[in-house]
Amino acid sequence: MRAAVVTNTEFTVEDLPTPVPGPGQILIDVTRCGICGSDLHARTHADAMADLAAATGYDRFMRTSQSVVLGHEFSGAIVEYGPDCHRRWRTGTPVVALPIVRRDGEPHLTGLSTAAPGAYAEQVVVQESMTMPIPNGLSAEHAALTEPMAVAWHAVRRGQVGKGQTAFVIGCGPIGLAVITMLKAVGARTVIASDFSPRRRELATVCGADIVVDPADGSPWDAAPKRRINGVTDILGLGFDTMETLRGIPKLPWWYAFRLAGKLDAGPKGPVVFECVGVPGVIDQIITAAPPLTRVVVVGVCMETDRFQPAMAVNKEIDLRFAFGYDPGEFRDTLHLIADGKVNPTPLITGTVGLDGVGNAFAALADPGAHAKILIDPTGRALTP
Questions:
Q1: Strand, coil or helix: what is 140?
Q2: Which CATH superfamily is domain 148-229+268-322 in?
């Protein structure tokens, strides 16, 4: 099969042996594969990412000197089953799969390890237990975006954003755009998006952002609807008002009201902020500027050491969370959200290339104003997105 292989940051298209599915695995023909921000990082910073992965317990992440087939956002069609499979679907069935396989009892990340070649290729091996048929005649292009959209779905769920809430999305690259799309799907009342790139701000609007801000011209916090809590003084004032009201009710054990509010999570809340930039200093900027009781969900992957002022977060009771990946249920739910028309990933797709155009696609993605998500069509001939 043909595949785009990266070695020492350089891409070459090579003829590789046809992959052989192992026990419990399926060989699929790749129809589309997305280029992920993780792929961009892995191409140039694989060693740093491998060291980080090893420190967290995964020691098979790719190294710069190794020859690796990237690609973990893909759709395809079943070609062949390996041994010990349940053979749930006929050959030719369109499918997607979580990008993880098991070999010799060990898990490997598809497209980010030499032990699990990815989908920048005509064919890829997937785990049968992690495979799902594509429903409702969903297109291969949209199905391939199940993986990045699942990352956004997991982040939104981590943020516990409810209907009628205000949410901020800082950074409107592919993952920020996906988060905006998912926020509107869950019924967030007002989504405020911020990015320096005019093109990304345009895409944010198409994805459903209610207010879009150029941070060079204004603050996203100033663009938000009026809120009850803007500073610590407002919280103290709310405390006085609440106590005066409760104490005005004879024989009321007012402390039970506070206990119940805490149990039901019914106390005052700030907005939810999604950090989708991954650049040092952004978390500190958010903590400094955000109102008290804000929940911050960090989705952007910063590969450098960062700093923020804990006392600022303490005084405001900022809830700082980090989101990574998704679980199989979230992956399945994302696939069906797209297939049922509840989520539209179309605005994210800004170009398609064949295997021979992968290097050009990476170069194009270096310009944040040019593209969001570029797909690879292994049978296509396009050299530029």
A1: helix
A2: NAD(P)-binding Rossmann-like Domain (3.40.50.720)
N-term to C-term CA, the chain: 23
Residue 232 is encoded by which pair of tokens?
Answer: 């610590």
- Answer yes or no: is pLDDT of 173 > 70: yes
pLDDT above 90 covers a percentage of the chain that reads 83
**Helices marked H in the chain:** 37-55, 140-144, 146-159, 174-185, 198-207, 232-247, 254-263, 282-289, 310-316, 328-339, 358-365
Q: What is the pLDDT of residue 228?
A: 67
Q: What is the pLDDT of residue 331?
A: 98
User: Tokens for 107?
Assistant: 């898990």
Query: What pTM, to 2 d.p., does this model score?
Result: 0.93
Select from 225, 22, 213, 35 the least CA-distant residue to 105. Answer: 22
Cα–Cα distance for residue pair 371/200, rounded to 1 Å:
8
Backbone angles phi, psi at 346, to 5 degrees: -50, -45
> Where are the CATH 3.40.50.720 domain residues in the chain?
148-229+268-322
Rg (CA), the chain: 23
Residue partners of 181: CB distance under 8 A and separation at least 6: 149, 152, 207, 208, 343, 344, 345, 347, 348
Q: Using one digit for the tens of pLDDT, what is the confidence trace for 296-344?
A: 999 999 888 999 999 999 999 999 999 999 999 999 999 999 999 999 9
Neighbours of 206 (CB within 10 A): 14
Delimiting residues of CATH 3.90.180.10 domain(s) in the chain: 2-145+345-376
Q: Which CATH class is domain 2-145+345-376?
A: alpha beta
Backbone angles phi, psi at 307, to 5 degrees: -140, 145
> Please, which residues bridge with residue 77 across strands?
29, 94
Between CA 228 and CA 222 the distance in angstroms is 14
Please state, for a pLDDT cut of 70, what percent of the chain lies above it.
Answer: 99
Tell me the two tokens of residue 175: 């993952």
From CA 176, how far away is CA 151, in angstroms rounded? Answer: 10
pLDDT at 236: 82
Residue 179's CB is within 10 A of a number of other CB atoms, namely: 31
